Automatic annotation (TrEMBL):
InterPro entries: FAD-bd (IPR002938), FAD/NAD-bd_sf (IPR036188), UbiH/COQ6_monooxygenase (IPR051205). This is COQ6 monooxygenase. The keyword Transport does not apply. The gene is Coq6. One of its GO terms (molecular function) is FAD binding. One of its GO terms (cellular component) is mitochondrion. GO terms for biological process: ubiquinone biosynthetic process. Residues 75-186 form the FAD-binding domain. Keywords: FAD, Flavoprotein, Membrane, Mitochondrion, Mitochondrion inner membrane, Monooxygenase, Oxidoreductase, Transit peptide, Ubiquinone biosynthesis. Pfam families: FAD_binding_3.
Length: 246
């Protein structure tokens, strides 16, 4: 993680860990979940292409022994019941709304541009890179030795421009965002050098070899997309017979 306006940077090591984390594509996660569900098919039934349209909660004044279960009505007319309803239906959770749980929201006035990228050459692609630009951070997340996933947070207008670019211009913009020093500030560099010098007097440390991010050669067709960025936080995550998990 490093700054576009100065030499400031942070390196996260993993000396005591086998791996700091994993970048897993959505279809791989879905495949793994489906495999696990198939393994317990005698105990778990999955309703594909189904949609819940109504939830009815028992009165919280009832005891656990006497209170009826949560009633769930599906779009096809089927009715289900459960002692605990798990809301895992995302930011616009219908479960949360039906439970009348308030949601605190804030829009960041930015959009994220995502894409699947191919690197210029095969490498040990096991490092996630993030650079803070004046308009927002750009991140490169490893997928394989030759591919990475892009998440570029920027202004709405710039995001639209990135989406409208031809492939060559888009790739050039990504490489420039990671490699260019056009935003460097001499004042910030000088202040940072003085701060590091003062810190080194108190706590000397060895000099680490700085790694450089891989260069990008091309982008997967149709992989570019943009999403508005915002924050949402439910005021409650657990109520009588309901829990929100995501």
């Amino acid at each position: 993680v490093w700054d576009a306006c100065s030499e400031a940077m942070i390196v996260f090591e993993k000396d005591d860990l086998d791996d700091m984390g994993y970048i897993v594509e959505n279809d791989v996660i879905m495949s793994a979940l489906t495999k696990q569900l198939d393994a317990v098919a005698d105990r778990v039934e999955v309703f594909y292409r189904s949609r819940a349209v109504r939830y009815t909660w028992p009165l919280p004044s009832h005891s656990c022994d006497t209170s009826p279960w949560v009633q769930v009505e599906l779009a096809d007319g089927r009715r289900l019941q459960t002692k605990l309803l798990i809301g895992a239906d995302g930011h616009n959770s219908v479960v949360r709304k039906e439970a009348e749980i308030k949601n605190v929201e804030h829009q960041y006035d930015q959009s994220a541009v995502v894409a699947t990228l191919h690197l210029s050459e095969a490498t040990d692609n096991n490092v996630a890179w993030q650079r803070f630009l004046p308009t927002g951070p750009i991140a490169l997340l490893p997928l394989s030795d030759t591919a990475s996933s892009l998440v570029w947070s920027t202004s709405h207008d710039h995001a639209s421009e990135l989406l409208a670019m031809d492939e060559e211009s888009f790739v050039d913009s990504i490489n420039s965002a990671f490699w260019s020093n056009i935003n460097h500030s001499d004042f910030i560099d000088t202040a940072g050098a003085m701060f590091r010098s003062a810190i080194s007097l108190l706590k000397p440390s060895g000099t680490a070899v700085r790694q450089l991010p891989p260069s990008v050669a091309k982008v997967d067709p149709e992989s570019r997309a943009m999403f508005p960025l915002g924050m949402g936080h439910a005021t409650e995550y657990v109520q009588h017979r309901v829990a929100l998990i995501g």
